[in-house]
From TrEMBL:
PANTHER family: MKI67 FHA DOMAIN-INTERACTING NUCLEOLAR PHOSPHOPROTEIN
Name of the protein described by the UniProt record: RRM domain-containing protein
Keyword RNA-binding assigned: yes
Subcellular location: Nucleus, Nucleolus
Keyword tRNA processing in record: no
Domain RRM: from-to ranges: 53-131
Molecular function GO terms recorded: RNA binding
Pfam families documented for this protein: RRM_1
Keywords linked to the UniProt accession: Nucleus, RNA-binding
GO CC terms: nucleolus
Cross-referenced CDD domains: RRM_NIFK_like (cd12307)
PROSITE patterns (UniProt xref): RRM
Protein source organism: Medicago truncatula
Amino acid sequence: MGTKAKKALKKKSLKRVNAINNKPSEHAADFLSLEGGPGRKLPELKQLENSSPVLYIGRIPHGFYEKEMEAYFGQFGTIKRLRISRNKKTGKSRHFGFIEFESPEVAKIVADTMHNYLLFEHLLQVFVVPSEHVHPRLWKGFNYRYKPLDTL
């Protein structure tokens, strides 16, 4: 095959690729394929709408941990998730946590009732966190139960 034939073949394949890529489509290709065809479409990620609001609970006293919190706040309604922030090295509580209830009405009632509640000489600070401010990795490791070394 001569150089003229190679150039003609290359020009022909470029025209074919441009014709395929210039087709009007709803979504643009996420990347170009090496074979010259249209690019593969990546699946669109949908954000999960979380209707149940998250409560921030601050100034949690010493000794009021996951088990006690679940029992205490369970009197208001069913708890979906509960997480107390802890020090990674020592496992000690950082005195704040998050609770997610099944129902938004219950969460609002808990926030109104428990804000500035005196518990073990500490005033609890309870706020409803707006859903747009909830970090996606907030609940990473929420089901982990810390077991202190002294209670073997």
